[in-house]
Amino acid sequence: MNTQKEIAEPSYLDYKGRYKGLFSWIFSTDHKRIGLLYLFSILSLFVIGATLGLLMKFELIAPGKTIMGPQAYNAFFTLHGIVMIFAVVIPGLPAVFGNFLLPIMIGAKDVAFPRLNLFSWYLYVTGVTLVIISQFAGEGPPDTGWTFYAPYSFRTTGTMLPAVFGAFVLGFSSILTGLNFLVTIHRMRAPGMTWLKMPLFPWSLYATAWVQLLATPIIGITLLMVVAERTLHIGFFDPSLGGDPLLYQHLFWTYSHPAVYIMILPAMGAISEIITTFSHKTIFGYKFMVVSVLAIAFVGYFVWGHHMFTSGMSGTALYTFSLLTFLVAIPSAIKVFNWISTMHKGSIDLQTPFYWAIAFIFVFMIGGFSGLILGSLAANVHLHNTHFVVAHFHFIVFGGTGFAFFGAMHYWFPKITGKMYDKRWANIGLILFFIGFITLYGPMFYLGFKGMPRRYFDYDEVFHAGNIISTMGSWVLYSGLAIIIINLFSSLKGGAKAPSDPWGGKTLEWTIPSPPPVENFTETPVITKGPYDYK
Amino acid sequence: MTADIHRDDLASKTGMWLFLFTEMLLFGGLFVVYSVYRYRNSQAFHLAAEELSVFIGTINTIILLVSSTTIAMSITAIQKKNKKLALLLIGITILLGLAFLVNKYFEWGSHIREHIYPGSPVLALRGQGDVLFYGLYFFMTGLHALHIIIGLVFIGVIASKIVRNKIDSGNYVLLENSGLYWHLVDLIWIFLFPLFYLIT
User: Fold this and answer.
1) CA of B2: which chain A residue's CA is closest?
2) What is the arithmetic mean of pLDDT over A223-250?
3) Percent share of chain B, pLDDT over 90
4) Domains and CATH numbers, chain A
């Protein structure tokens, strides 16, 4: 049946539209092509960001100046942060896999606003371009860190305006993607797909989209205020003009903490899909999974203060934020528990995406628990602004979202490209990546606990051993990353043809050919069963 | 590249409403900043607010309220297939929007002639409360004026679509959306007006 359809309907990769070559991509409003546009932009920026990280780790291989001085180091971690947070991790899963798979997984032909979707990608490219301009224009690159903390962000001579405005534009792109997904999920689900028959990846995108929509405007206006502060000297956050720098921190984290959930929720959704498929078993506690995703998104709005425990807040505020921080761990723990329970008595098929999912759970747990340590007030006073924090958020953001991103990539690669990849090399890459990751970030917990501060190019002799291990880890991690990317790219040419359902998945994307036809479904599917119907 | 054209008016309107949420939050951030500084500098904010012209502010409020009415009426006119009346009402809306901007221009101009603008040395001498009040005043009314301009462009595009019969009694969701946007711009002014002009 499938072969007939493939002949009748060209895949989205072969489709001949109005434009040819590059234009058939950058003028395409097909959600699948836009997903791939995002994939290539994000992967390129990820490699740039990772290279910056690699060089920073090399600087830290020994005390004193190795390859860069303090100013260069500040510029490096600023660019690394801006690129990785705003241009890679926040759009990562929603813009790439969300775009490609959300319409297919809910049985739709496209997102609700295809042209707006393409416009979001143009905004994304504009934002990235502005950030790149900030590196080469004016009196030197920005050196504030990705947080643009006031008052330094309008006192430094670095080129702040394009960087700050670039982050604003990237935020706008993220808002429009979220808006698009919300309307898509509300209006375009296939007949019979009730809310509780929707797979968990779309559910996680739904929760994420609300966060994107409701939190991002706050950083938008905050960044605009910084721009106004620098150009017009208005005094919003400048103490010498009566402004309050703490107010900046509040506004900044009001967005930037929920932003962590923009990063991690779709990752959890993708992991849920992978674990169900490779356990060949219905997800354990589907409704709990849905509720916990929504709960994380909701409670996540009220914990921003835990970034500011040492900045100066009332005692009541400290206790409240600390308590709420602990509360947000509960739904995350429910998810981990349900993933493990899904595997229990399942018939597990050990494939690369499943290994990624297990690795995800491992690093996510470490990241989560270290988050609880940071969320307790007394420990936070000691650990704030040390490498412990760096280790914690890399375990969550890179370990969580990054691992889920590569897991999703190996899971949906056959669907997206129509090719299988070399599983052996994929596994070797994963093992190196995992070992490198633990070696790189593991010692940072210890270093931070011992008091090594973050954001310095130099450190005391006593921290030398840990830093050597950490730097060597960065080399292993980077080589693992190289193997993974090379393997996937070489599979594009040499890989075997992928069947429509290589893993035995049950969600809608596995019912259509790989790669999908332009219109996704020849006939609109009618949903009668739950999303994970394993008998 | 999708081959068949899919149209869903409710989806367009939902999208517009969601976008309006983001606009409200955008200004919401500024309202938070305003409240914090008003609380800390209540005396200075009180005195500075008395210097603003309540007369021009009131005129501008009336202008925006009337323009919201006219754009709402133009939707009814389109529904009743009265293209001419709809265009007339939209024309009035645009003129009222421009009148608002002209008033704003003269208002800003009179402040700037008195050397009251962000970064002005004269303003700095008057103390931090005044610096913050006028900083917020220029930033918030400026951002609002920017929204008026975007709204006018949006409505202008809609008008040209009505002329070319791209929008008619069977397909007017774009006009409704531009109306929604215009009402939001109006609504934000309804909050800005008392915050800067009336609470003295």
Assistant:
1) A30
2) 91
3) 86
4) 2-511 (1.20.210.10)
Q: Of chain B residues 21-80, which have a CB less than 8 A from chain A?
A: 21-23, 25-30, 32-33, 36-37, 41
Structural domains counted in chain B: 1
Average pLDDT over residues A471-478: 97
* Cis status of the peptide bond prior to A191, with omega within 30 of 0: no
At A11 the three-state DSSP class reads strand
Which distant-in-sequence residues (6+ apart) come within 8 Å of A50 by Cβ? Answer: A478, A481
CA-angle at A90, arms to B10 and A82, nearest 5°:
135
Helix/strand/coil for A517: strand
pLDDT at residue A36, rounded to an integer = 96
Global confidence as pTM:
0.94
B45 found inside a domain: yes
d(CA A165, CA A155): 17
CB atoms within 10 A of CB B32: 16
Please state the ipTM of this predicted complex.
0.91
Write down the residue that tokens 């430094």 correspond to: A156
> Are A84 and A49 within 8 A, CB to CB?
yes
d(CA A189, CA A508): 12
> CA–CA separation, B146 vs A229, rounded Å?
18
Ramachandran sector of residue A233 (left: φ over 0; alpha: ψ -120 to 50; beta: rest): left
Q: What is the pLDDT of residue B149?
A: 97
Q: Which domain holds residue B113?
A: 18-198
Residue pair A184/A103 in contact by the 8 Å Cβ criterion: yes
Say if residues B31 and B191 touch (Cβ distance below 8 Å).
yes
B173 burial (CB, 10 Å; 0-12 / 13-18 / 19+) is middle
Write out chain B residues lying below 8 Å of A520, CB-based. Answer: none
* pLDDT tens digits, one per residue of A33-67: 999 999 999 999 999 999 999 999 999 999 999 99
Scan residues 102-161 of B and list those with Cβ closer than 8 Å to A. 118-119, 124, 127-129, 131-132, 135-136, 138-139, 143
> Does B1 reside within a domain?
no
| A267/A274 Cα distance (integer angstroms) | 11
Measured in angstroms, the CA of B154 and the nearest CA of chain A are apart by 16
Give the residues across from B171 on adjacent strands: B168
Q: What burial letters (b/e) apply to B135-163, b meaning 16+ CB within 10 Å?
A: bbbbbbbebbbebbeebbeebeebbebbe
A71-87 confidence digits (pLDDT tens): 999 999 999 999 999 99
A503: DSSP letter: S
Alpha-carbon gap: B85 to the closest alpha carbon of chain A (Å): 31
On whether residue B4 sits in a domain, the answer given is no
Q: Which of residues 429-488 of A touch B (CB under 8 A)?
A: none
For residue B11, being part of any structural domain is answered with no
Q: What is the mean pLDDT of chain A?
A: 93
Interchain CB distance below 8 Å, A29 and B131: no
Please identify which residue in the block is written with the tokens 């790439």. A96
> Which residues is A11 bridged to in the sheet?
A517
Q: Which amino acid is at A376?
A: S
Q: How far apart are CA B104 and CA A41, in angstroms?
A: 43
The vertex-A217 CA angle with B31 and A392, nearest 5°, equals: 115
CATH value at residue B185: 1.20.120.80
A4 band by pLDDT with thresholds 50, 70 and 90: very low
